[in-house]
Write a structure and sequence with these properties.
With about 400 residues, the chain is α/β, with parallel strands linked by helices. The protein folds into 2 domains: about 240 residues, Type I PLP-dependent aspartate aminotransferase-like (Major domain) (Aspartate Aminotransferase, domain 2); about 140 residues, Aspartate Aminotransferase, domain 1, CATH 3.90.1150. About 40% of the residues lie in helices and about 15% in strands. The protein has 14 helices and 12 strands. Helix 7 links the parallel strand 5 and strand 6. The longest helix is centred in the C-terminal third of the chain and has 20 residues. The termini are far apart. The model has no long low-confidence stretch (mean pLDDT about 95).
Length: about 400
């Protein structure tokens, strides 16, 4: 056979399976081996075969990085120990006095990292509603170095105009970063829309099986990938080779899983929107979503995440969450199994109560990560749990 190494002109599914990966040159193994080694032998001081120490680089990790770059159609990718490690590698390149403009609704761990870690080191942060381009423009400062965009947001599923914000950032010489975790490269391409950097929690949809924690930074900018690599290596933000192997196992089926996630989520969202016990459903695939038209233009599908408000406040929410059987009450998202949670108590407890209230993350607010089980079973489970909440 001819060994092909360039997969740039192939379709997404082909890149998911082949990009960054070659048969093992020693054995011909089709799966990238787990190179469980911390160090590498050198023939002479400084004369080595591309690897010195696994904090810096590792063959299994490099295969994953090539795959992630292929999925985002980018030149460079770096795999990290978690999504928070990816954010740390980017913000670790900043200096005291630099300013970061961030969306007002982001993952609680991202907010905590900004507000409780980097703010203490002298980096300044502002949080604005990024669905409003005028608000973004007004919040940019001469000292702004990064604009952090999460879209769809976690957990209220706001949609930010990536191309519009990226244009504002270019004009102001600000680096734009998009957290693409919820959408994945299958449904959204931030770099093609003008963003400078993409960050992922690969723990979620990219890994896809709730069995590995990881992160990634992807870009076409050589200077930025060098900064990320320097911080990664200096701070020890690297993932282990087995984690990289598991993530590679996940990316191979991303496209087929996302199709099922989207199909199930659309059915669940329509069911919830018609239910009397539900006061509001937030899902980018529903015409009732405030940025529905933008989502239709910017994304290739509305994703697998849904948020909704249940009637009856916290008592009803608690009864409902205690009654689910197919859905699992747990944090995280993006796995093959359907997960459900209460953001105010669980994933976003680190966000100040007044901020949660302003965003609508109230006691009646519930977030769903719709898995790939049978659609009918998911809807039946929601039906019985809602009935329990209503009649308890």
């Amino acid at each position: 056979m001819v060994l092909r190494t360039d997969w740039t002109e192939t379709g997404f599914g082909t890149r998911a399976i082949h990009a960054g990966q070659e048969p093992d040159p020693v054995t011909g193994a089709i799966m990238t081996p787990i190179y469980q080694s911390s160090t590498y032998v050198q023939a002479s001081p400084g004369d080595f075969k591309g690897y010195e120490y696994s904090r810096t680089s590792n063959p299994t990790r490099e295969a994953l990085e090539g795959n992630l770059a292929g999925l985002e159609e980018a030149r460079y990718a770096r795999a990290l120990a978690s999504g928070c490690a990816g954010a740390t590698a980017i913000m670790g390149a900043l200096s005291a006095g630099d300013h970061v403009l961030c969306g007002d609704d982001v993952y609680g761990g991202t907010f905590r990292l900004m507000d409780k870690v980097f703010a203490n080191l002298g980096v300044e942060f502002s949080f604005v509603d990024q669905t409003n381009l005028d608000a973004v423009r007004a919040a940019l400062r001469p000292e702004t170095k990064l604009c952090w965009i999460e879209t769809p947001t976690n957990p209220t599923l706001k949609i930010a105009d990536i191309a519009g914000i990226a244009t504002l950032c270019r004009e102001a010489q600000v680096t734009s970063v998009v957290d693409n975790t919820f959408a994945t490269p299958y449904l959204q391409s931030p770099l093609a829309l003008g963003a400078d950097l993409v960050v992922h929690s690969t723990t979620k949809y990219l890994g896809g099986h709730s069995d590995v924690v990881g992160g990634a930074v992807v870009t076409n900018d050589e200077a930025w990938i060098e900064r990320v690599q320097f911080v990664l290596n200096s701070m020890g933000l690297n993932p282990g080779p087995q984690d990289c192997f598991l993530t590679l196992r996940g990316t191979k089926t991303l496209h087929v899983r996302m199709d099922r996630h989207v199909r199930n989520a659309q059915a669940v969202a329509h069911y919830l929107e018609a239910h009397d016990q539900v006061s509001k459903v937030i899902y980018p695939g529903l015409p009732s979503h405030p940025q529905y038209e933008l989502a239709q233009r910017q994304m290739r599908g509305p994703g697998g995440m849904i948020s909704f408000h249940i009637r009856g406040g916290l008592p009803a929410a608690r009864r409902f969450l205690e009654a689910v059987e197919v859905f699992s009450l747990a944090e995280s998202l993006g796995g093959v199994e359907s997960l459900i949670e209460h953001p105010a108590i669980m994933t976003h407890a680190s966000v100040p109560p007044e901020t949660r209230e302003a965003l609508g993350i109230a006691d009646d607010f519930i977030r769903i990560s719709v898995g790939i089980e049978d659609e009918r079973d998911l809807i039946d489970d929601l039906a019985q749990a809602l009935a329990t909440a209503e009649h308890a």
